[in-house]
Amino acid sequence: MDALLHQFFNLDIMARALPLVLQGLQQTVLLCLIVIPLGLIGGLIFALASLSSSLSVRWGMIVAIDFFRAVPPLVLLIFIYSGLPFAGIRLSPLAAVALAFFLNTSSYYGEIYRAGIESVGRGQWDAARSTGLSAFHTLASVVLPQAIRNVLPDLVSNTVEVVKLTSIASVVALPELLYSADMARSLTFNASPIVLAAAIYLVMLWPVVRLISRLERRMAS
Amino acid sequence: MNAFLETFFKPNLIAQYLPSILRGVVTTIEIAFAVVVTGLVLGLLLAIIRSFQIKPVNALIVIFVDMFRALPPLVIVLLVYFGLPNVGISIPSFAVLWLVLSLVLAAFAEEIFWAGILSVPKGQWEAARSTGLTFLATLGYIVLPQAVRLTVPPITNRTVAITKNTALGMVIGVPEILNQATSAQSFSGNATPLMMGALAYIVLFIPVVALGRFLETRFAWRRG
Amino acid sequence: MQLTLPVTEPILRVRALRKSFGATEVLRGIDLKVDAQELVFIIGPSGSGKSTLLRCCNRLEEPTSGAVHLGGVDLMARGTDINAMRRKIGMVFQSFNLYPHMTALGNVTLALRKVAGKSRAEADTLGMAALDRVGLAAKAKSYSSELSGGQQQRVAIARALALEPTVMLFDEPTSALDPELVGSVLAVMRELKAAGMTMLVVSHEMRFARDAADRVIFMDHGVIVEEGAPAELFGAPKEPRTRAFIAELTR
To answer: Which site among A78, A170, A219 would you substitute to test the B interface, given the most B Cβ atoms closer than 10 Å to its Cβ?
Structure first.
């Protein structure tokens, strides 16, 4: 029992690791502020493209979305970071993470948006267009607002997944939360810094997870 | 074009490293399969226990589930992998990966199964109990069959997502696909093994995603 | 399970039953008995506690205090096997509550197989007999989504009948049905009465009550206000509240 506390809940080591870990948290927050908007906007583009009237664009988009949902994000990231340099494209850890996340999360957000748009009845589109509204305005003022409201729990749920996903950036040595905590672990030979990082993730995400559970239950009934 | 092929599809490297990548594929499949079985069974068990409505037990289940849904899997993997040896418990890295991913899947699955159980109308419970069926018999013959059908789409989605996390095994040295691919890439100084690894994942997961879609349509059943 | 009773003991006896949901007291001391082969009808405004009373009789609701005896056996006693007792009490719900993932025959035979320990062959025979009694033997292989409301309710009756209960409880059996389907269900209930089934019915079907009931009970705000033979209660109600309710209904 004592060994457990010492190895995982060593408050002294946590205190010493705190500055480093907080810096990592800062990087994580920054990373989230970059990749979440990127994904939300990218997803919208993917979704609209996959509903395009042009058959080739539609098929191309569906293939791309399925591709980026089938490949694990870590594999995509490693490929971009370690593989592309062989083709002459060398990206910084941050750029590699941003690109990998953009491709991966846009595909997931894209599927959610698409489900949302399809859930808004065709009648809404017809009604708006028959009053003379352009396609763009119909989309922006009539269809999308309803679509997004319908899939809001899924969007929130996916955003939580994206925040958790930022931890894989540690594998390409981006100094975010997990990387910093792991660095502290290797310096102290003690796992407490990682417990500290876990606690920070919990503080950030536990309330949202509770909220999602409640929303999921309401939607199921 | 030639340079592209040389960089990503060099034939002699493909031949040289194919066995290694295939070994990685086998490892990935084994771990993914084990994770799916233990994760879903545990998740269902937890949902069933939760239906007994014993308050302190339920609180524990909710805490467990919330934690494993809020924490990034990689954090839990590193915690278990680096922490346990120092308290005297040493388990091989593939076991760490299997354990962590199973618990994560169980947590998500429990919530999905629980939502399914809750969405079966109360009248079904009442009708069954009023004919003298016990609580467990009602659960087994009436409630769960209806609940599980509702849960097939979200369960398959979540299961596919979590099995892709087997790639995280690379970080702790599990000889799955990504690990084999990146080792081979360092040895050979060429990106071909990486491309092989990526393709292996695609080949593996496209049938899985297709199976998921098939299950979703087969289990879409209208309520009476 | 054989219930042996002295001839004068009622099949169902409710004593001083009280039920509260949180701070709201829904049943305020109900005393009621149903003798063998009687059809007792309960009427009253919504919120009077009629459904709650019925549901207490097979412990779907746990009474706050008071007693319910089936054939002399105390349902609330700690040693009582409630699952075994419930097989003796048939319940029919307003919303039918058929199991959608099973055929009509499956619905009827489930409890026979899992609780009464019958083999599949025995259960199917008994099940088909019950379905035949309600006129739906032809629909044995149908699912609830393929049946009309009236047919679903009759299957629900068969489901309760198959267990050969000593008393049947009906909670607004026709309230969820389209008017033209009500008749088929009432016909089944009349047949049950003629065959000597003991029945406790909560319903608004006044004509049925006049024709078939042995006793009518009027409930309001959790108490029994008045009870008597249909002719008395409908023709010459004693209590003002009863009079007001009957007048309201026959308007």
So the answer is: A78
